[in-house]
Amino acid sequence: MERVDTRKLLGRRIQRLLDEQGKSVRQWGEYIGRQLSTCYSILAGRSHLRVEDLIRTAEFLEVSTDYLLRAEEEIPIYLRLAPGESRESVAKKIMAQVEEYFQKHPELEKRGE
Known about the structure:
With 113 residues, the chain is an all-alpha fold. The protein has two domains: 6-69, lambda repressor-like DNA-binding domains (434 Repressor (Amino-terminal Domain)); 75-113, no CATH class. Helix content is 58%, strand content 0%. The mean pLDDT is 83.
């Protein structure tokens, strides 16, 4: 089984949540009491996040610590059909999400080679 770089995964997850919520790295750093350079190092997966900082980060991003620490990445897939929507149109949406995901994470495509 391939080893997962949890620091990089955590950094990407925090960055995605910051982006989705329109929050800045500076705001996050001020909330957890860390210098901006430390925050960028955490986001890049070069530094560990201390337990107390993990808890404050979860509070700041309004998610659970479990969510932040998950070992796998998720591809959001919504399978509920809207009225009048076909399975084919949902499949196209899902494939577009998968394509977008792999464009954001090109390192994952190299695993199959």
